[in-house]
Amino acid sequence: MTVRPIRLFGDPVLRTRAGEIVDFDRELRTLVRDLWDTMEKRGGAGLAAPQLGVGARVFTYHCDGHAGHLINPSLWLADEQTQDGMEGCLSIPELGWKCRRYRNVVARGWNMHGEPVEVSGSDLLARCLQHETDHLNGVLFLDRLDERTRETALREIRAASWFDGTEPVIKQDPHSLFQ
């Protein structure tokens, strides 16, 4: 079991678009195992490579009875329905706020062996797939909060014991996840 340190809000790697994976090799399989071990140990529903300081387009997930990993994922809307729900992040520990997400999505990508994978998610799984794909694009769920909630979130982050004083960067209009 390899549990790695998680990068916290304020680390520039969390705001950088991760690079496409082209080599489905031993190094990638090790990264997927490290992501899994760290996510499970920290009690997360998902964990993206940038949260470990690695600029690669891969994440693991384990929520709502579903578990796996996706490499170079793309998200597709299953319909226009949305959901409001509590959301947190291992890179913003011990805090969470209501965030609007799409209720039903389809994620397509590859597994660590280069085989195609498709995951259809609703509710919590859909939220998780969107959240982790956002990480790969340098977007945090804070960017998707309504203005009032975001102001509250930033106050609570600044007061958190883990916050290092780096002025938070918020993307006021995050790009769409969907192609």
CATH superfamily: Peptide deformylase
* Oligomer kind: single chain
Roughly what is the average pLDDT, rounded to an integer?
94
Give the strand content: 25-35%
> How big is the Rg?
15 Å
Instruction: Provide the helix percentage.
Output: 10-25%
| CATH topology annotation | Peptide Deformylase
Give the strand line-up of the largest sheet: 1-2-3-6-7
CATH class: Alpha Beta
What is the structural class? alpha+beta
Total helical elements: 3
Can you tell me the residue ranges where pLDDT is under 50 for at least 5 consecutive residues? none
Function: Removes the formyl group from the N-terminal Met of newly synthesized proteins. Requires at least a dipeptide for an efficient rate of reaction. N-terminal L-methionine is a prerequisite for activity but the enzyme has broad specificity at other positions.
Protein name: Peptide deformylase
Binding site for Fe cation: 89, 131, 135
InterPro entries: Peptide_deformylase, Peptide_deformylase_sf
Walk me through what this model shows.
- One of its GO terms (biological process) is translation.
- This is Peptide deformylase.
- Pfam families: Pep_deformylase.
- Fe cation binds at residues 89, 131, 135.
- Helices cover 25% and strands 30% of the residues.
- With 179 residues, it is an alpha+beta fold.
- It has a 5-stranded antiparallel beta sheet with strand order 1-2-3-6-7, sandwiched between helices.
- β2 (58-63) and β3 (66-77) form a beta hairpin.
- The longest helix has 17 residues, at 26-42.
- The radius of gyration is 15 Å and the shape is globular.
